[in-house]
Write a structure and sequence with these properties.
The structure holds three protein chains of three kinds.
Chain A (H helix, E strand, L loop, with lengths): L21 E3 L9 H5 L5 E2 L9 E2 L10 H4 L7 E3 L9 E3 L5 E2 L16
Antiparallel strand pairs in A: 1-4, 2-3, 5-6
Chain B lengths: L3 H6 L15 E11 L3 H12 L4 E4 L16 E2 L13 H11 L6 H21 L16 E2 L4 E3 L9 E2 L5 H11 L3 E3 L2 E8 L8 E8 L5 E11 L29 H5 L4 E2 L15 H4 L10 E3 L5 E2 L12 H4 L29 H6 L8 E3 L5 H14 L4 H9 L7 E4 L37 E2 L12 E3 L10 H20 L8 H12 L10 H15 L6 H21 L5 H26 L24 E8 L2 E8 L6 H8 L3
Parallel strand pairs in B: 1-2, 1-10, 2-7, 10-17
Antiparallel strand pairs in B: 3-6, 4-5, 5-6, 8-9, 9-10, 11-16, 11-18, 12-13, 12-14, 14-15, 18-19
Helix pairs in contact in B: 2-5, 2-12, 3-4, 4-12, 10-11, 14-15, 14-16, 15-16
Chain C lengths: L6 E11 L3 H11 L5 E4 L16 E3 L13 H13 L5 H20 L17 E2 L8 E3 L5 H11 L3 E3 L2 E9 L2 E9 L5 E11 L27 H8 L4 E2 L31 E3 L5 E3 L17 H15 L3 H6 L5 E4 L5 H13 L3 H12 L8 E3 L7 H4 L2 E2 L12 E3 L11 H22 L8 H14 L8 H15 L6 H17 L7 H26 L19 H4 L1 E8 L2 E8 L2
Parallel strand pairs in C: 1-2, 1-9, 2-6, 9-16
Antiparallel strand pairs in C: 3-5, 4-5, 7-8, 8-9, 10-15, 10-17, 11-12, 11-13, 13-14, 17-18
The chains are: A mainly beta, B alpha+beta, C alpha+beta.
Chain lengths: 115, 657, 585
């Protein structure tokens, strides 16, 4: 996307924070709106364009229960997006380094998580 | 484009996708009406349907995923009667719990849960839920019963809490409701009860509600009604900015205020109070330190281990020791029952802050799973974090981001900002307890609610209650067992009675009450109202409490009501539903203030402090204070502690099994 | 793509950054020397800054009154040093402010602001009330529109005012200022200022404290205070002092900021007292010096000071403690006042801050009457003095370590509670010196093209849209870090952890702005984050607990005057922060 200079800019009130509690991957989302129907807080609306990911219209009400993700028929279509202000870091014992979800230079995924 | 902002920026306005039906009426009739489709509601519907009743279930969200138990749960407690691995009796555990709070608890729901919890779990399994380690992942672990493949938690000697795969529960319950032909009314919020003749205190003959997507007005006619709604989580803090992250329960409102308006009796409302640490821990990130992480080792920033001690100040080095009762103690009690005998905090233990001031420990603190036995580590992070409510996503995202419980320690938060919000400064826990991961002291979870008898009937005819709408209602198993029990009674009541006649005036009044905000396009939105209520509660109902402050608090709430009546606005059915919720929160706040003003004594067992009546639990105040509404006036009453009488005898007489 | 952002070049002899009290005074004075003067203001000078919604009082040494009662400038300095700063103060600078403030008042009068009243008992018609010192020290005046008058005066004198521009970069060449760069907060354009002298007048860092209610704007100082000057000074390699004096979030703060003045002095003088729920007096009304005795009786300054200090201690009740004991709510109580007194207090309130609207609202909607009704209020337990004591280091000519760069008002560190008199005196002086410097400087040093390109690139990146962070999310994250790691419990290990955490957030963030307004907010949050880092690092260095200005280190609970009656300066040198202890002499 270019800078906004070439486009018309419309005014709308500040988006509440956090703005994006869940993020849809349009390549994986099939637009079935299952998440819209299960969302506990009812923060999603079906996309006016059929087959496209739902709209997050009430992001500030998200409870971060991830039910949308749990009930999603596709894998990798929905990701929970932890907001910046709430991340629980952890400390790797051997190095003393801290890590957290979403860091710039992430660790490789844990290949053998406990089941 | 998948965010509204992008649409707006592109000049596209998104129309409300559902039809708008404000004020249009739809009638649904059933034998038994269940309000709230969480754990309690689903069980109530299932058990009533199994008794042959025609059941209507009304749920504000989507029954398949909704409620506090929607995202999952990691342990199932009070699995006593019928559990071959547990040597205890329902009586002794229930009595111990009740004794530990000197009777300031709900003996009925506790005991019936201890009796039915294990069987209920097995029933859940039959519906498709996973409760056993069928893959033998934890073969040979100290907490595993090799014969049944059940995994136990906390008290490995007495084995009455089962570790479960709670993610599977809500979908299983939903399927069962469907199978039994329950009429599920999702996205409908019940707002008011219908009573005979439209009068307060009369028999309940159904309920009214509103569709939260279309705004359609719903009239539910039923012979018996079961109240299974949640508590109001938004009384103290509002869902703004980041705040939605903190709640253990969905930040909606308790619907039991509709029973208040219908004249039902409530008790223990004064126990519902603000806790100082409420806001500190990031709930979603860590799961509950008191149960999910129960025996985890805590270390400070320099890796120094914080001793885990028992009530006698003996250091418990191994995880095994932490999961056995102390010498002389027959069994361990879950964390929210606190007495000298069962308390995990030995007297004289320093708080984290004191320890840091003395230079003994360096902040921050960490939960160190690396020092724990392999299977304990796996069961905590793999099974429990992976199944417990919102922390389920912790498991997934932390694993993806490289978190390895064999190598990594999770940072704790709780101690750092003891009074970031509010004026109480209470709630710091002993470091001997796995506290530093961000506990919230959710007192609301065990606070006030509807008074019930041995049929789980409220003070109103035709109205039953289960789960968190009952006073002192507990967690997952309590919700399930009381739901099941109340469902049976509601079905039985419904068989011998006919439908009542709906009073049109009551319907019209309710419409006037709930649609007010749709008539305006500007003014006060639900969030501003919520903030207003929160601030009143923080300042005028904080700790300690006093008559002068609380009176002022009530005045201010009265003013907020007036502002709501004249200035509230909502622009779509969703915002309308939030506005109605917030109005319920206002009512809950009033109930709390009334109850708190009525108790002119402090109480250790209710976590209740009055500066003007500082004596703790004087003899004359050892009783339940009840409140109800009569002709617009608050009517106080009382009930003796242990009003439920002999547990086993009464249960046998009323259980309908 | 970069070339798409338009650059607006502006050449001026003196560039003043921030058009609050200090900035306007600097501009007015600088114009006296015939040089071209430009104010770059983030909002609009008519209403911006701490005085934007009015001030009703301002302390000063009053040469026509104070000598008559035997009180000297040195006495004022001593009062201020002991009672307001605990000795941790730049006394020379304080003396400068005290001695110059009255002259500036006379200037303000010339600009049309009324300070004199027929009913005054004083020879020159002033109204004098007590504020920060042991004898009545503050002029009460009609200051509601002070910024309007100042703006008029600057315009009259030919100052160019560029409103709605936020300066983000100070430009220097070989240790000399060459100008500054900024962004339009409404027009998505870059403003490139070429200047011979630059004056910093940007203000404090108030917005770094999280509002406890979670509601934005519940703060008594303007939310434009994002420490822009401090952040730019740091990047330019200048030393900053006292950064650690940053107040933790206030658990008490809530509405009624308008009457939230701590003690019933100044604005609430003469009739205000603080009472408890049953009318019991918690802080009595402040005693007044009997002006009838003026010229006949002298005060004993040392004795008066001693009494004042003792009263101050008494008059600063621990509201939190009282609240716990059940002695709340608290009221601002004027019910025993005379009609005349009430009228006077209402006049003061209507000139101070948001008081005018507040009072109007109360009367209109609540049928409010001071004679009958008390105002409930929640006291702030920690003052704003803390961030005002931090800032740049200047000499008495307001010079910083960079040639041609001056600072004034709350951008200057070392004098807590310098407030309005600090702004007007320092601004005036800075304007004078900046103009002098500009007239002796022959050439413009030119705008650093590289820096301009860098700012363009940064703006372009922020305006890309898409998946970056909204400024508010970043702000909350930064505020949360301050809350947890630099709040009421401050220990070495926690602060270290907080610094790390903040570093992580900074590394992780990519700002996303969809328009010029949001671009400004992003830049502000960037300033806040830089200030947060400095505050935590400075807090880590100061290994003591200090009563005045308030500073708590949980792991060093004692005040250590031997080692720490000193300013802590911090500067960026070769990419590293260097700390230095500058003992108070």
């Amino acid at each position: 996307m270019n800078t906004k200079r070439d486009e018309e800019v419309y005014v709308f009130p500040n988006a509440p924070t956090p703005t994006r509690p869940v993020i849809f991957d349009p390549d994986h989302c099939n637009g079935c709106n299952k998440c819209v129907s299960v969302c506990i807080m009812d923060i999603l609306l079906p996309n006016p364009e059929k087959g496209k990911p739902p709209l997050v219209v009430f992001p500030d009400e998200c409870w971060y229960d991830a039910c949308c993700e749990l009930h999603c028929p596709e894998s990798n279509a929905i990701r929970l997006n932890y907001p910046l202000m709430w991340k629980v870091p952890w400390k790797r014992k051997e190095t003393g380094d801290y890590h957290w979800v979403g860091e710039k230079n992430p660790l490789p995924p844990n290949p053998k998580p406990p089941v | 484009m998948d965010s509204l902002a992008e649409y707006a920026n592109a000049g596209v306005t998104v129309k409300w996708p559902y039809p708008i039906r404000y004020g249009e009426e739809k009638e649904v009739t059933g034998d038994v009406l269940v309000l709230g489709g969480g754990i309690a509601g689903c069980w109530a519907a299932i058990s009533a349907a199994k008794k042959g009743a025609n059941v209507v279930l009304v749920e504000r969200a989507a029954t398949i995923a909704s409620g506090s138990g929607g995202p999952g749960c990691d342990h199932w407690s009070l699995a006593i009667t019928g559990n071959p691995a547990c040597p205890l009796t329902a009586e002794e555990v229930s009595e111990a719990i009740i004794d530990s709070l000197e009777g300031h608890y709900n003996g009925i729901s506790t005991y019936l849960t201890a009796r039915e919890s294990y069987d209920t779990l097995l029933e859940l399994e039959k519906m498709g839920a996973k409760i056993r380690d069928t893959e033998d992942e934890f073969k040979g672990a100290a907490f595993r019963d090799e014969e049944t493949k059940l995994l136990y938690a906390y008290d490995y000697t007495n084995k009455f809490t089962v570790r479960v795969w709670g993610n599977t529960f809500k979908p299983a319950l939903y399927k069962e409701c469907k199978r039994l032909g329950v009429s599920i009314q999702d996205r409908v919020m019940a707002t008011g009860l219908l009573t005979e003749g439209g009068n307060e205190g009369n028999r309940v003959i159904g309920a009214m509600g509103v569709n939260v997507r279309t705004g359609e007005f719903m009239v539910f006619k039923a012979k018996a009604t079961v109240m299974c709604t949640a508590r109001s989580t938004r009384v103290w803090y509002s869902p703004t900015e980041e705040t939605g992250l903190y709640y253990l329960s969905p930040p909606t409102a308790g619907g039991s205020t509709m029973a208040w308006r219908a004249g039902a009796e409530f008790t223990m409302m004064e126990k519902t109070h603000q806790a100082g640490t409420m806001i500190v821990g990031p709930c979603h990130g860590a799961a509950h330190p008191g149960n999910t992480w129960f025996p985890a080792t805590m270390v400070d920033a320099k890796g120094k281990e914080i001793p885990y001690v028992d009530r006698d100040n003996n250091v418990l080095k191994t995880v095994g020791e932490r999961n056995r009762p102390s010498p002389g103690q027959k069994f361990m009690l879950p964390d929210h029952y606190r007495t000298d005998e069962y308390d995990f905090i030995p007297p004289g233990t320093m708080t984290i802050e004191e320890m840091v001031e003395k230079g003994e420990y360096t902040l921050p603190l960490f939960a160190d799973l690396t020092r724990m036995p392999e299977e304990e580590r796996r069961v905590i992070f793999g099974l429990m974090v992976g199944q417990e409510s919102k922390s389920r996503s912790t498991y997934k995202y932390y694993t993806e981001a490289g978190f390895d419980p064999e190598k990594d320690m999770l940072q704790g938060f709780q101690f750092i900002a003891p009074y970031a919000y509010g004026i109480t400064g209470v709630g710091r826990r002993s470091p001997t307890y796995a506290s530093a991961l961000g506990s919230r002291n959710v007192r609301t979870a065990y606070g006030g609610g509807l008074v019930v008898d041995w049929d789980l009937r409220t003070s109103l005819d035709g109205l039953y209650a289960a789960g968190w709408s009952i006073f002192s209602g507990g967690a997952h198993p309590e919700a399930a067992c009381t739901g099941k029990y109340a469902g049976r009674h509601a079905a039985e009541f419904a068989t011998g009675i006919s439908q009542g006649d709906v009073d049109r005036k009551q319907v019209e009044n309710e419409m006037r009450r709930i649609y007010g905000s749709t008539k305006r396009n500007e003014g006060i939105d639900w969030k501003e109202l919520n903030h207003g209520i929160n601030k009143v509660m923080q300042v005028y109902c904080g700790e300690p409490k006093g008559d002068e402050l609380m009176k002022l608090g009530l005045d201010l709430l009265e003013d907020l009501k007036w502002e709501t009546d004249t200035r509230s606005f909502s622009t779509d059915p969703h915002k309308l539903s939030r506005m109605i919720e917030t109005m319920e929160i206002l009512t809950t706040a009033e109930m709390i203030l009334h109850a708190s003003m009525a108790r002119k004594a402090s109480s250790k067992y209710l976590g209740f402090k009055r500066w003007d009546y500082p004596t703790m639990d004087p003899e004359e105040w050892r009783k339940f204070i009840t409140i109800k509404q009569e002709a617009g006036q608050v009517k106080l009453g009382e009930l003796p502690l242990r009003y439920w009488g002999d547990l086993a005898e009464n249960y046998e007489a009323h259980c309908l099994l | 793509m970069n070339s798409q952002i338009k650059v607006v070049p502006i050449e001026t002899d003196v560039l003043i950054i921030g058009g609050g009290l200090a900035g306007c005074m600097a501009a007015i004075k600088a114009r006296e020397y015939g040089v071209r003067v430009t104010i770059a203001e983030k909002a609009n000078t008519v209403s911006s800054g701490c005085a934007g919604s009015g001030i009703d009082h301002m302390w000063a040494y009053l040469p026509t009154i104070h000598p008559e009662i035997g009180w000297s400038i040195e006495d004022l300095v001593e009062d201020h040093s002991e009672g307001m700063s605990g000795g941790l103060v730049d006394k020379d600078l304080l003396y400068f402010v005290a001695s110059q403030a009255f002259d500036r008042v006379l200037d303000l009068e010339k600009f049309g602001i009324n300070f004199r009243y027929k009913d005054s008992k004083l020879p020159d018609g002033f109204r004098v009330v007590p504020q920060f010192h042991s004898v009545p020290d503050a002029l009460n005046f009609d200051g509601r529109y002070i910024k309007k008058y100042l703006t008029k005066e600057t315009k009259k004198r030919g100052v160019t005012i560029v409103n709605r521009v936020m300066i983000t970069d100070l430009l220097t060449t070989d240790g000399q200022v060459s100008g500054a760069l900024g962004i339009g907060t409404r027009d998505e354009e870059i403003y490139s200022f070429s200047a011979k002298s630059v004056v910093f007048c940007t203000g404090r860092v108030g917005r770094l404290s999280k509002a406890v209610t979670g509601v934005w704007g519940n703060s008594s100082s303007p939310l434009t205070e994002t420490g822009d000057g401090r952040a730019m000074a740091l990047r330019a390699g200048l030393p900053l002092i006292n950064m650690e004096f940053f107040p933790p979030p206030n658990p008490f703060a809530m509405g009624n900021c308008e009457v939230n003045l701590g003690a019933p002095r100044n604005t609430l003088f003469p009739a205000g007292s603080i009472t408890g729920p049953n009318g019991e007096v918690i802080v009595p009304r402040t005693e007044f010096y009997d002006w009838d005795k003026l010229g006949r009786e002298k005060v004993d300054p040392a004795e008066t000071r001693k009494r004042w200090l003792a009263e101050r201690r008494k008059a600063k009740p621990q509201y939190a403690k009282l609240h716990k004991e059940g002695k709340s709510p608290f009221y601002l109580d004027l019910t025993d006042a005379t009609d005349e007194e009430v009228e006077y207090v209402e006049w003061s309130i209507s000139n101070e801050g948001r008081g005018y609207r507040f009072l109007e609202y109360m009367k209109k909607h609540e049928d409010f009457n001071f004679r009958r009704d008390k105002i409930e209020f929640t006291p702030t337990t920690r003052g704003m003095a803390s961030t005002a004591s931090s800032g740049l280091m200047v000499n008495l000519d307001m010079e910083t370590g960079i040639g041609g760069l001056f600072a004034a008002g709350d951008d200057v560190g070392g004098v807590p509670w310098k407030s309005a008199p600090g702004a007007v005196t320092m601004g005036w002086r800075a304007g004078e010196m900046a103009a002098n410097r500009a007239s002796t400087q022959k050439e413009f040093l030119g705008v650093d093209g590289e820096r301009l390109e860098a700012l363009k690139a940064l703006c372009t990146e922020m305006l890309q849209g898409g998946r970056g962070h909204h400024w508010r999310e970043v702000e909350l994250a930064v505020q949360n870090v301050m809350d947890y790691y630099c709040g009421d419990v401050r220990t070495g290990s926690l602060l270290s952890r907080g610094i790390e955490r903040l570093g992580h957030i900074k590394a992780e963030v990519s700002y996303n702005a969809t328009n010029a307004h949001e671009l400004m907010r992003c830049m502000e949050v960037r300033s806040l984050a830089e200030n947060a880092d400095l505050i935590m690092r400075s807090s880590l260095e100061r290994k003591e607990t200090r009563k005045l200005p308030s500073f708590v280190r949980t792991d060093f609970p004692e005040q250590d005057d031997l080692n720490w009656l000193a300013f802590l300066s911090v500067r960026l040198q070769d990419g590293r922060l260097r700390f230095e202890r500058l003992p108070i002499t």
